[in-house]
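Weekly modeling sync, notes
Attendees: S.R. (lead), two postdocs, one rotation student

Agenda item 3: backlog of single-chain predictions. S.R. asked that every request posted to the team notebook include the full sequence so nobody has to chase files. The rotation student volunteered to paste the first one in as an example of the format we agreed on. Action items at the bottom.

Example entry:
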Amino acid sequence: MSIQTPTPVDLSKYIDRRLFGERPHIRGRRIPVAIIAYQQRANNWTIAETAHNFSLSGAQILAALLYYDEHQAMIDEQEAEERRQFDAMKHQHGNG
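Predicted structure, as returned to the notebook:
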């Protein structure tokens, strides 16, 4: 018996990377995949709760979470870089 490798799922119907400096986000909504994944996990939300809280469909949430799971290292690094840039700008320009 041979083990079959799962076929990659095309998530391009739901996920786009053309905006936000290549940060993956929900197509047509500009909600970053990272924000969905981080909030869902931090709050222990169900798929339905996450969909409700972001005004998205369950399919969009599932696509975002799957995309995050498949690209976690890249996304976490992008988010860390975004945070570093934000902190540097805040330090340079003050709190407003």
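Discussion: group reviewed the output briefly. Strands lie at 15-16, 25-26.
Action items: rotation student to repeat for the remaining queue; S.R. to check formatting next week.
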